[in-house]
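ok posting inputs for the magnesium ion job
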Amino acid sequence: MQMDLKQTSPKPTEEDKTLDQTLRPKIWEEYVGQEKVKRNLRVIIEAAKKRKEPVEHLLFYGGTGLGKTTLSYIIANEIGVNLRITSGPAIEKAGDLAAILTNLSEGDVLFIDECHRINKICEELLYPAMEDYKLNLILGRGPMANTMEIKIPRFTFIGATTRIALLSSPLRSRFGATFQLDFYEIEDIERIIQRSSRILGVQTTPDAIKIIAKRSRFTPRVANRLLKRVRDFAQVEGKGEITKEIVESALGFLEIDEEGLESGDRRILEVIIKKFEGGPAGLQALAAATSEEEDTILEIYEPYLMQLGFIERTPRGRTATKLAYQHLGMKYPGQNALL
Ligand SMILES: Nc1ncnc2c1ncn2[C@@H]1O[C@H](COP(=O)(O)OP(=O)(O)OP(=O)(O)O)[C@@H](O)[C@H]1O
Ligand SMILES: [Mg+2]
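and the output
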């Protein structure tokens, strides 16, 4: 089923990882948009620098591809410390975490992606590490077990998650500040495409940038990926320059419509409209009817369809809006008008 969301799924593919690296902003000036988050972070960093203390622990949450990892790179760079990157599922045992923490240097940033997936044992080990920079290790088993306290360097923990609701509240409460990354303004996505075009050394006309931006799900990673796809088309079918015509033919070929929807998105809308008579459709029922994972619906499809105003979430489930019917060229039934 992943097939359907190949081009516009904000989740990183193997190919994206290289692209992410090439295009990832390294300083504040390059990080487009999210002005409020940037302003607050700069204050927090400056204040910590003045106090000569490590920056407090930070939590970033928001959809995939919106710039959480990028922020952690910039922060470490800005403070002038090392960045150690790992992820919740990668830390399997208490020993793994202990090894990471004891190997940090004073002031380093430890970035843990998908921090809602840190296992319970490791999470509990993190609490005193975050609060008092110490590790309480249990040595041995049963009645002979002993605890050992180890001091670790003062560090900054940056956690990132796409699913804030799955984060335990004890962990959540130990972050000094929490930031939500939201979808980008369309003008910001245009600026990101401009910047990426420059870095990739490809000529892109202003109207071509506008069209790519509009179909990028308000998400930097998707914008960069579409730009790269379109560049390939421009090289093969055109003279290398990315023009409006090239973009339209490339994105048409890739079946990405004017609103950035792919067949997977459209199928969700169609199922709500046809199978559930416009809704409400519960998450489980919708997942079963579309053969999609519930998580994929929650994390990928739904946020964007809601952002466009194509679906609404009610306590009883998802409903398709008039805009969704119009987008699919279907007649909006009058009796649902009051929903
Ligand atoms: N504010 C921004 N300005 C310019 N480019 C950005 C910005 N945010 C993200 N990008 C681009 O999008 C790519 C993806 O961003 P990033 O890896 O930080 O997302 P993420 O939120 O960590 O996603 P995931 O949840 O999948 O880990 C980056 O490599 C970068 O090129
Ligand atoms: Mg990331």
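notes: Strands lie at 58-61, 83-87, 109-113, 134-139, 146-151, 156-161, 177-180, 311-314, 317-320. Residues 311 and 320 are 5 Å apart (CA to CA).
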